[in-house]
Fold these 4 entries.
Entry 1:
Amino acid sequence: MKTRLEPIVVKRGRSLVRIYPRKKGGRVYFQVADYSSGKRKFVGFVDPRQAKLHAELIATKPVTSDRDVQQRRFTARRRPVIRFE
């Protein structure tokens, strides 16, 4: 059975960013999960200090209202179209 390495959690206020250590080819690299754009993106680093620095940058970034805009678009698509002819 494979043993998974525990994710490193960086917290700043109410923000939480996870850093996933991964083994590949006998080396360990770190993937930072970035949800700031509304979708999950992984950013890879070889150095854990750089990964933590990037995670802190993401966690301290002010939250924009992009999600509100995306949710409005989603609800706008779900509404039935009523046409008066």
Entry 2:
Amino acid sequence: MAGSNSSFLKGRYSAEKRFKLYGVFAVSLALGAVIFLLFPIFSTGYSAFWRTEFQVEIQLMVTILESHRNLQTRR
């Protein structure tokens, strides 16, 4: 009786070790996949966080501005 119980526990412990190993492998594989997918996004997209400035010259017509002002005062 003691021999069969011991062999059962031995098999149970080895199954538990395999289960833990499979879990570590799965988590490592998932983490590697996330890094593989996110690296290109961040390596090409980091420039979006830089500051960009540009200067545009705008010519405003006084008649259009005055007509717009007149419309606002009528309300």
Entry 3:
Amino acid sequence: MKSTDKPGELGTILGKGAVVDGNIKVEHSLRVDGKVVGDVTSGDTLIVGAEGEIKGNVKVKNLVLGGRINGSVLSPGRTVLEARSELRGELKTGKLVIDEGAIFDGKCSMSDAKAETGRTPGEADGETIIK
């Protein structure tokens, strides 16, 4: 994994071929090009590359999906489903962009997701945070 100190820049990368069996929680941006079987929480943007896959719930500020997610997604900022991406599950987001060719199979609610949870995604809830 790679870490940077500049806000808004990519902080952690899970590379192609890497597999994580467990939850991931980071304060900064995260890119997943491998596979995660577990929940993913980020205080910033999550980018799932074309070959990336997440089987679990996702709580992030913003989401750019190029690969696959099977689980519930809470993204109070902006969610982008790129062409050839797949999202199967419930989505709660502030803004939604779906490119032609993307697959979305589930329920979508567009609202102020922070108001629903009472906290910003990624806010501490007793789990270990990678800095």
Entry 4:
Amino acid sequence: MSWEALKNRAFRFLVHSFAEKKVSPTIYSRAAHQVQCLKEMSKLFRAVILGPPGSGKGTISERVANSFGLKHLSSGDFLRENIAAKTEAGVLAKTYIEKGALVPDHVMTRLMLPRLEEMTRHSWLLDGFPRTLAQAEALNSACELDVVISLNIPLETLKERLRHRWIHPASGRVYNMRFNPPRVQGVDDISGEPLIQHEDDRPEALVARLRHYKDVAKPVIDLYRAKGILHMFSDTETDRIWPYVSSLLSTKIPTDLGDAQRVRTH
């Protein structure tokens, strides 16, 4: 249930409670429960990180999770989990992936929104969703975001990063042969299984892929800019971007998120 829906429900209960001359204990109890839910939700924090392939979204997301106790929610992880579990949405998504096509909006929202509904008592950072305006509007109808982080990385930097990127397909673990290579060339550190390079990461496909991202992402960025929650960060190195992201979140995340949230996430 979204923040607005819960707030409106609590308000209706409270109005009804005080309007009645003889208020039943049940109504008071239900109203009190809604107020408590509102208090808990006011301490939560929901953010999205946007950026093209190779922009460092995963690295920044992991640092945010470790530093601030937020859950890192990855659309790629959700996709792999649903495909492995052979859920209806996962099977459907797999048919597109196997054809080399993008998973369409209606399938991605079917994958993502139910999972987010399970996270109503957690603060989180969402990575990889939304990618399109339709996905952003679907997310907007389900929850209220506090911050949107957008990583703006120069094209030449992205091309250089993606040329050296190798992936463990089963887990989604990413390696860069220049900056964070595996311990053994071409082999995943954890599983010992071979790494692959996506066809889309090859030089001949990169420019078209990055241009497509820019075209699709622009209305999403414009939407969040209009809502006043967009924060853009530009540089060629993740380590130089991170201090600014950390400084921003230090001013945005509720101070009483703290220990209780960290207990749930560790």
